[in-house]
């Protein structure tokens, strides 16, 4: 298929010799919270793998369980959360690890960049000392001046001007983009094997977004860390990710290589997301953007059968879409799976087919 | 920082001036400096007239105010109408005793309240948390004088009689014994009045600290600290407590200002020779020469405590710029 069929072309070449060693495996992860009206099933049976050097994009609307999935991996959910399934990091099962052992993994081997950097930085400590703490906690023997050098070096690496002065400032003295970069510096300071970045660009304006993404790219080039990039921006995914997990209502909707997923979506939700992307490479005035109709579902009363059926253009109702939960399955490529009863049909469509044409 | 302090001190001048007007007219309206003379059966009208003239009471109230203020700011506070001692000396001595009570009261209340608040937040809904909740409601609803009397009964008389002690473990009168000026003796005198003064503060502050700690513990930056691999204890005390103390300082400043009310009761019960007792006696004797400077000094202290609280606030929270 031709390149121009992609909304945004994935420019970065993927590692040629397939994927590196497997480092993180999530299997059948379930997370639920007790709530007043019932049980919130925030994550409902998510599985994926991440290899060294790989960037996995996790995409989905607000409330689809992306952040909860990430927090569950690090044991950072509140005590009220009920968890089941498995999160294996190398040979270690993380879900039943004691807090003490988990502490050694956090920040050193798996690190996380949080969604809202202003809230995620402690307002009463200097940015430099907060980054320094992240290093020191795993390297208690480090000397003071060495620590200081590392911190300033990290701030420089993520593109903060005057890093030595900036290190002594408080988070409220930073701009939004700089705070996000400081968060990234804090997450990469121990050269983690897995870096989870939770919507690192969402709160930022477009130019700053581009700068932060550049930092992410630079980091990706410099380290062999696997990156889990959580976002609801498919454009970001196209630019950075090797593989993509699309989540809907806490469940995996589709998982596959970025190109396959963009060219040959097997799930109507993915197709809808692609059709709602603005295309910069084409300028057809008569093509409007697609909007997925309806609202994301309540996670307490998830629609029966396929959770997407009230919003799906392909749905056959009531049988089978409103009665049978579609299992993840692959058509021909075993690394590409989707949870839809009619994947074969969806695969033949392109995002353009969903776009309303003016005058029609 | 320095400009902040200077500016705040300058701001406090009009505040204190307004306070002086209120205090002066209120005291003059309610208290007659010659009440004792008139009530003592003395029918010598010329004496009363002479005194009235000597004290300037025959002048218009505003003139009296102006004259009083002029003397007051020049520290010419005059003599007590009752004892004849110099008021400035009296207030200085009593203030020293009272400040000891206030200082230890605040220190003890803050430490205990913060400890209880942090524990209750960290072990939310534990048996001890419920116990503290119950106790704090008892503490808040218990009048301090009643607590003081019960404490004297339970901690002094009951042990003394049960164990036939020659000396009680704690004392309920004065700052120190006539023959013993040691530290231990001082502490044994200090405990009960400080406890009486602190009950309500501890009860209120610990509730507040619990709520603010709970609030902070669910903040994003606490999760960040945990995600870095910081040990739980450090997360609690370095990241959470430091932030949770910020709102408490405001409440503390307000409460310390109103502490002087409780002080009067406490000092009267425990015969503590301080400002509270001085006020109590001055009211009883209609001693306006003591009442007026007393009220002004108290107002000055409230202003200073508020300033200190704001400074502390600025130190704890870098987002507040003191300028
Ligand atoms: N501590 C909690 N208690 C109860 N419900 C929670 C809790 N944390 C998250 N949830 C619920 O879990 C669901 C998934 O939330 P999550 O934060 O993972 O969404 P998300 O995909 O990250 O969305 P966004 O794009 O807005 O960040 C939401 O419905 C949310 O309300
Ligand atoms: S299973 Fe049915 S409702 Fe669900 S996505 Fe596929 S076609 Fe749509
Ligand atoms: Mg999120």
Summary?
The complex is a heterodimer of chains A (360) and B (323). With 360 residues, chain A is an alpha/beta fold.
Characterise this structure.
The complex is a heterodimer of chains A (360) and B (323). With 360 residues, chain A is an alpha/beta fold. Chain A has a domain of 207 residues: P-loop containing nucleotide triphosphate hydrolases (Rossmann fold), CATH 3.40.50. Chain A is built from 13 helices and eleven strands. Chain A has a seven-stranded mixed sheet, with helices on both faces. Chain A has a four-stranded antiparallel sheet with strand order 2-1-4-5, covered by helices on one side. In chain A, a hairpin with a 4-residue loop joins strand 1 and strand 2. The longest helix of chain A is centred in the middle third of the chain and has 17 residues. Chain B has one domain: MetI-like (MetI-like fold, Orthogonal Bundle). Chain B has 13 helices and no strands. In chain B, helix 6 crosses helix 8 and helix 10 runs antiparallel to helix 13. The N and C termini of chain B lie close together (6 Å). The mean pLDDT of chain B is 88. The structure holds adenosine-5'-triphosphate, iron/sulfur cluster and magnesium ion. Iron/sulfur cluster binds next to loops of chain A.
The best one-word shape of chain B is: globular
Low-confidence stretches of chain B: none
Write down how many β-strands of chain B occur, each being a DSSP E stretch of 2 or more residues: 0
According to CATH, the homologous superfamily of the domain at 12-104 and 235-270 and 283-360 in chain A is P-loop containing nucleotide triphosphate hydrolases
Estimated helix fraction of chain B: over 70%
Reading the helices and strands of chain A in chain order gives EEEHEEHEHHHHHEHEHEEHHEHH
Oligomer: heterodimer
Decide which structural class fits the backbone of chain B: mainly alpha
N-to-C span of chain A: 28 Å
Gyration radius from CA atoms of chain B, angstroms: 24 Å
Query: What's the CATH superfamily of chain B, by name?
Result: MetI-like
What is the 3D shape of chain A? globular
């Amino acid at each position: 298929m031709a390149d121009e069929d992609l909304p945004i072309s994935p420019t970065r070449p993927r590692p040629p010799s397939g994927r590196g060693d497997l480092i993180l495996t999530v299997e059948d992860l379930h997370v639920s919270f007790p709530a007043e009206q019932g049980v919130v099933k925030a994550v409902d049976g998510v599985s994926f793998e991440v290899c060294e050097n790989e960037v996995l994009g996790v995409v989905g609307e607000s409330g689809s369980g992306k952040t909860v999935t990430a927090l569950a991996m690090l044991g950072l959910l509140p005590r009220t959360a009920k968890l089941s399934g498995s999160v294996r990091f190398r040979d270690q099962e993380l879900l039943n690890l004691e807090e003490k052992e988990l502490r050694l993994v956090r920040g050193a081997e798996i690190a996380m960049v949080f969604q809202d950097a202003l809230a995620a930085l402690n307002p009463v400590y200097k940015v430099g000392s907060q980054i320094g703490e992240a290093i020191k906690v795993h390297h208690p023997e480090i000397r003071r001046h060495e620590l200081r050098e590392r911190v300033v070096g990290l701030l420089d690496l993520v593109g903060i001007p005057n890093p030595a002065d900036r290190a002594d400032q408080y988070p409220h003295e930073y701009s939004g983009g700089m705070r996000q970069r400081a968060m990234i510096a804090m997450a990469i300071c121990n050269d983690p094997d897995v870096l989870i970045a939770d919507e690192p660009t969402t709160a930022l304006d477009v130019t700053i977004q581009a700068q932060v993404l550049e930092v992410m790219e630079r980091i990706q080039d410099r380290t062999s860390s696997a990156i889990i990039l959580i976002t609801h921006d498919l454009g970001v995914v196209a630019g950075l990710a090797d593989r993509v997990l699309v989540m809907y209502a806490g469940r995996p909707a589709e998982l596959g290589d970025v190109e396959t997923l963009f060219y040959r979506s097997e799930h109507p939700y993915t197709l809808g997301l692609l059709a709602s992307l603005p295309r910069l490479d084409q300028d057809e005035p008569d093509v409007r953007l697609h909007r997925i109709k309806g609202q994301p579902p309540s996670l307490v009363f998830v629609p029966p059968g396929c959770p997407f059926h009230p919003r799906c253009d392909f749905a056959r109702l009531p049988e089978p879409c409103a009665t049978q939960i579609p299992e993840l399955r692959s058509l021909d490529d075993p690394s590409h799976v989707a949870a839809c009863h009619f994947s074969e049909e969806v695969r033949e469509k392109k995002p353009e087919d969903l776009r309303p044409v003016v005058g029609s | 920082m320095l400009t902040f302090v200077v500016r705040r001190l300058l701001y406090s001048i009009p505040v204190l001036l307004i306070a002086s007007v209120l205090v002066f007219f209120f005291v003059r309206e309610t208290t007659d400096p010659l009440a004792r003379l008139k009530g003592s059966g003395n029918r010598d009208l010329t004496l009363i007239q002479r005194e009235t003239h000597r004290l300037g009471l025959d002048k218009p109230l505003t003139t009296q105010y102006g004259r009083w203020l002029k003397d007051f700011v020049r520290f010419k506070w005059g003599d007590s109408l009752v004892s004849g001692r110099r008021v400035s000396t009296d207030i200085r001595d009593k203030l020293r005793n009272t400040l000891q009570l206030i200082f230890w009261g605040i220190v003890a209340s803050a430490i205990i309240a913060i400890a209880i608040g942090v524990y209750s937040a960290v072990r939310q809904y534990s048996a001890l948390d419920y116990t503290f909740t119950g106790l704090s409601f008892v503490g808040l609803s218990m009048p301090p004088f009643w607590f003081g009397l019960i404490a004297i009964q339970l901690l002094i008389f009951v042990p003394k009689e049960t164990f036939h002690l020659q000396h009680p473990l704690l004392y309920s009168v004065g700052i120190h014994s006539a023959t013993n000026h040691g530290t231990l003796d001082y502490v044994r005198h200090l405990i009960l009045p400080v406890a009486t003064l602190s009950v309500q503060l501890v009860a209120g502050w610990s509730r507040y600290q619990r709520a603010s700690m709970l609030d902070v513990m669910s903040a994003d930056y606490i999760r960040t600290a945990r995600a870095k691999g910081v040990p739980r204890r450090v997360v609690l005390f370095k990241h959470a407590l430091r932030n949770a103390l910020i709102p408490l300082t405001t409440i503390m400043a307000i409460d310390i200002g109103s502490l002087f009310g409780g002080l009067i009761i406490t000092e009267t019960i425990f015969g503590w020779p301080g400002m509270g007792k001085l006020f109590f006696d001055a009211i009883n004797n209609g001693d306006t020469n003591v009442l007026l400077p007393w009220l002004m000094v108290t107002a000055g202290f409230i202003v200073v405590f508020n300033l200190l609280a704001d400074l502390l606030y600025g130190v704890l929270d870098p987002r507040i710029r003191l300028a």
